[in-house]
Each structure stands twice: as C-alpha cells, then as structure tokens.
Amino acid sequence: MSAEIAAPRSQRLDPKYTRARKSRGSFEMIAWLFMRLSGVVLVVLIFGHLFTNLLVGGGVKAIDFGFVAGKWADPVWMFWDLAMLWLAMLHGTNGVRTIINDYAEKPATRQWLKGILYVATAAIVILGTMVIFTFDPCIPGSDLLVCK
Amino acid sequence: MSKTSSGTLYRGREGMWSWVGHRITGVVIFLFLLVHVLDTSLVRVSPGAYDAVMATYKNPLMALGETALVAAIVFHAFNGLRLILVDFWKQGTKYQRQMLWSVIGLWVITMVAFSIRHLSLAFGGN
Asked: Which of A37, A89, A115, A139 is most buried (most C-beta within 10 Å)?
C-alpha cells in the first residue's frame, strides 16, 4: 500500500511551472455540482439499462435489431436512452477534461487533447441523438403495434 | 512506507486508492461509451449491419469482457455515491473509510449476483 502515485500538479512539476490564472467565473463549481447531480441520475439510468438489456429475458444473446426496435417503439425508452446519452457523455467528458488538466503539463498539449475530446464528444452526442430521433422500428414483417 | 506518505491521512491509504480506482474505471467506461454509441448507431444503417456487430458480443470472451465492464461501472457508481456523501454529508469525511469498505462489500455482492445471471445466460445454449 506504499506505492508512489504523485498527487496531480505536484512534485513532478518544475517549480517554475505556473499556469495562466484566468478567472472562469463559477464554471468549475457548476462542473463539480453537475458531476454529482448527473452521477446520481446515471446510477438509476445505467442500472436500469443493464437490468433490462442483460438480466431479464434472454440477456445479451437476445439483443438484435428487433430488441432495439421493441424498446424504441416506446417513447419512455427513447427518452431514457436520450437522457443516458447526454448525461453520460457530458459526465465522462468532464471527467476526462479534469484528467487532461491534471496530467498534461504543456499548455499546447492540454489544448490539443481537450480539443480532440470536445470534437469527439460533439460527434458522438449528435450522432446518438440523431439515431434515436430518426430511428424507424418498422421493417417488413414487423409485428410491433406501432407498425400496423 | 515512503517519507512523503507519513503523517498524511490521505496519501497511500484507502482514500487515495478509491480515487485511483474511480479515475481508471471512469476512463474505461468512457472509452466503452464512445464505441457503444457507434455500434448502436448501426441500427440506423440496416438491421443486418446491427445484428452482425451484435453477434460479435455474443461469445464467451466478450461475456467476460462485459462482466469486467459492469464491474467497473458498479464500482464507479457505488464509489461515486460515497463521494457525494463525503462532500455533502456532515459525517462524510469521518466515515469515508468505512464507506469505502461498504462500497467494496456491496460491489462484491452485486457482481456475484450479476455474474451468475449474465454468465449463465451468455454461456448457456438458449
């Protein structure tokens, strides 16, 4: 239990190293609060997601297009998955942003890594949102109620 | 014991290890999330494309991978709730160590139950 894991932004850093001090208002406090609020909601959303997809019915082997169509024919599951997508992506992005700020010491490296992170986040959130809203559960031969 | 860790309540103790675990599981979950949105997006390409990718999840090796992923999620979830209690509950910092052992206990119970159900479904010939 005595392994050395230096606290971020300490010791390893050159004493001359200082980071630009620009005021960001209450952004960091709001981000901190968001992690806690979204965290509680995500526990419910993700545990529900894992329960319905992996533990009831046929589990992982039963997941196919028909399974997804059956869920997204119901607006409740559309909203569930939409909320999960947005909250999980923002929660995860802010977590990785914190890790980049802690360990990338050069300002340029930090900006690049965060830039790549934000582009990836935007792409995934937009893609996922469009998929949920433009999804058509009805394929020929479907016996879903909404398709009749 | 290293010199830097003596005399502190945090470094090298339960608090530090829970923080390390929270970061590592967080990054793992985030990377999976990126892939998971992409694979699910294939429902918009065609039913066949989605089913083909989902078929790759349905083998014993992936079943173990899914169990490891869920283990990371459940630890991150329970330890996250502990973290909220440390921040918002008056007695939170006093009991943070006991709460970590509770997190680990609940995590073991949850993972035993999950593994039995998930692995029997994944390995079973249904």
From this structure: A89
Per-residue pLDDT of A44-73, as tens digits, reads 999 999 999 999 988 899 999 999 999 999
Mean pLDDT, all residues of chain A: 89
* Contacts of the segment A67-72: beta carbons below 8 A, 24+ positions apart: A68/A135, A68/A137, A68/B40, A68/B43, A68/B50, A69/A135, A69/A137, A69/A138, A69/A139, A69/A142, A69/A144, A69/B43, A70/A137, A70/A144, A72/A132, A72/A135, A72/A137
Q: What is the DSSP letter of B125?
A: -
Q: Among A9-23, A48-62, B54-68, B107-121, where is mean pLDDT lowest? A: A9-23
Predicted model pTM? 0.87
| Alpha helix ranges (H) inside B10-59 | 14-41, 47-55
Tell whether A50 is within 8 A of chain B (Cβ). Answer: yes
Are B73 and A46 inside 8 Å of each other by CB? yes
Look at B43 and A2 and tell me if their CB atoms are within 8 Å. Answer: no
- Asked if A43 lies within 8 A of B114 by C-beta distance, the reply is no
Q: Kindly report the number of other CB atoms within 10 A of residue B124's CB atom.
A: 10
DSSP state of B66: H
ipTM of the prediction: 0.88
**Residues of B whose CB is below 8 A from A29:** none
Give the whole-angstrom CA distance, residue A132 versus residue B12. 45
CA R_g for chain A: 21
- In 3D space, the residue among A73, A65, A77, A84 whose CA is nearest the CA of residue A125 turns out to be A84
CB contact at 8 A, B98 and B18: no
